[in-house]
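in:
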């Protein structure tokens, strides 16, 4: 009877220890699974964040393009504006407003012709200076520098005039 009592108690303690070991093992598996799920969640959050950043960049670029297109359309509307239409004035007043429309319409072509004239004049002046100096042969480096300066000037004037004429214009305050 005593052996039954001790052996039963011993088996009960061993059973309790095994149960606790299995419970610890199960808890460790649950903790590992929880950690793995958290890592997956973090990876998904990183991907979602990357997608949101990419989406916001696309939306910002699209918004800028739409804004640029609207500004460009507004510039076309502005170009068709006429100061002489729909006015009830004397013939002299109408003539002045027609003159304003003509001057406004000629600004771009005249400025373009003026810029072309300036560049051509500079090139002609440089050539004349070389001839006047009596230099039959210009050193290659000097000639290249002169022409590079002219090319830079042409590029600057062209980019300035094109961006000024066709670039964005200030938005009207609403």
């Amino acid at each position: 009877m005593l052996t039954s009592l001790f052996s039963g108690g011993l088996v009960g303690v061993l059973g309790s220890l095994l149960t606790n070991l299995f419970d610890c093992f199960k808890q460790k598996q649950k903790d590992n699974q929880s950690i793995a799920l958290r890592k997956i969640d973090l990876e998904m959050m990183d991907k979602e964040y990357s997608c949101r950043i990419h989406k916001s960049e696309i939306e910002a670029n699209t918004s800028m393009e739409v804004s640029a297109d609207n500004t460009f359309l507004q510039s076309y509307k502005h170009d068709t504006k006429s100061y002489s239409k729909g006015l009830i004035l004397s013939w002299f007043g109408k003539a002045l407003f027609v003159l304003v429309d003509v001057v406004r319409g000629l600004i771009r072509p005249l400025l373009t012709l003026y810029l072309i004239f300036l560049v051509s004049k500079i090139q002609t002046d440089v050539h004349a200076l070389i001839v006047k100096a009596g230099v039959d042969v210009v050193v290659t480096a000097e000639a290249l520098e002169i022409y590079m300066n002219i090319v830079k000037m042409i590029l600057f004037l062209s980019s300035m005039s094109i961006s000024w004429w066709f670039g964005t214009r200030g938005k009207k305050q609403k």
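note: Residues 125 and 131 are 10 Å apart (CA to CA).
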